[in-house]
Design brief:
Elements lengths: L23 E5 L5 H8 L1 H6 L2 E5 L3 E8 L2 E8 L4 H6 L6 H14 L7 E7 L7 E6 L7 H12 L2 H17 L2 E2 L8 E5 L5 E5 L6 E2 L6 H21 L8 H14 L9 H13 L4
Helix pairs in contact: 6-8, 7-8, 7-9
Length: 281
């Protein structure tokens, strides 16, 4: 979501009707100054003045500036009584993002620095707010795909680099939940290389053990199908290449330490399902 273009025809964010009346729970980065803590507490005002990059029923997000520095802010909206009831007893999406970002930092995986997570709600969970470091586009793999293919020279080398990160996550019991290319950080370095990482951690989970084969297969299929979606859309490959590319992704995961899923029916079905969602089959 970060690095997207401003939301067209959605320049005004609907206000959170419970903002002034509901209870609020804040978590701040230890390094954040008292001045910024005070400013970030008024998250609804900051969002109202932000340049929006997404403004849907479930999520409102944008970029705001404070003291000459840009920040990313996201509000996960409370979309009705049923959704609020369903969230009872759970961490808010903002707090989950905060917690998962800390888990990634423990294993040395780059993710935008989280400055504040704010959960609202008195009797039922309400909207929640997340403020993080802002990263300017192009900042993810989807946005940098052509440049990354040129840098790695062979698609298989790029697949292996992405799978190396995914395998590290899985070995440490970390499941992202939506490993599409637009959720992988790809930050260009001075030597032309790319630092990989993750963001958009709302659906992430940290297990007490290594990821199961079922979960690994699902996330591998998500990565492979997302690549195919981007590559087909940009005319980098044709539909006749789908089978061989799915095999290359599976071989890349095996090459970095995983099992060979190239002939695994579950992997192939999952990838096909994702591609149908993309309307690429």
């Amino acid at each position: 979501m970060q690095g997207a273009a401003p939301a067209e025809n959605k320049s005004v964010a609907a206000a959170n009707p419970l903002w002034r009346s509901c209870c609020k729970h804040y978590v701040f980065a230890d390094t954040l100054s008292d001045e910024l803590r005070g400013a970030f507490r008024d998250a609804e005002r900051l969002l109202a003045g932000a340049d929006l990059i997404k403004n849907s029923r479930s999520t409102t997000a944008g970029i705001f500036s404070l003291n000459g520095k840009k920040y990313f802010i996201k509000r996960s909206n409370a979309t009705g009584w049923f959704e609020r009831l369903r969230r009872c007893g759970r961490l808010s999406r903002a707090e989950r993002n905060w917690k998962m970002a800390a888990e990634l930092q423990k294993i040395g995986v780059r993710t935008p620095e989280v400055y504040m997570a704010l959960a609202t709600g008195k009797f039922l969970p309400g909207a929640c707010y997340l403020i993080t470091e802002n990263l300017e586009p192009p900042m993810n793999i989807a946005q940098n795909l052509v440049e990354m293919l040129n840098f790695y020279r062979q698609p298989e080398a790029l697949f292996k680099e992405i799978c190396r990160l995914a395998f590290k996550l899985h070995e440490n019991g970390f499941l992202h939940g939506d490993l599409k290319l637009s959720n992988f950080l790809a930050l260009r370095q001075a030597d032309g290389s790319f630092e990989l990482g993750l963001f958009d951690l709302d659906g992430s989970v940290k297990l007490s053990c290594k990821a199961s084969e079922f979960k690994r297969i699902k996330e591998l299929a998500r990565m492979a199908s997302s690549y195919l979606h981007c590559a087909l859309y940009q005319n980098l490959v044709g539909k006749e290449d789908i089978a061989s590319i799915l095999r290359q992704w599976a071989e890349a995961y095996q090459a970095v330490g995983g099992r060979d899923y190239s002939e695994n029916p579950q992997y192939l079905r999952r990838a096909e399902k994702f591609l149908k969602v993309y309307n690429r089959l």
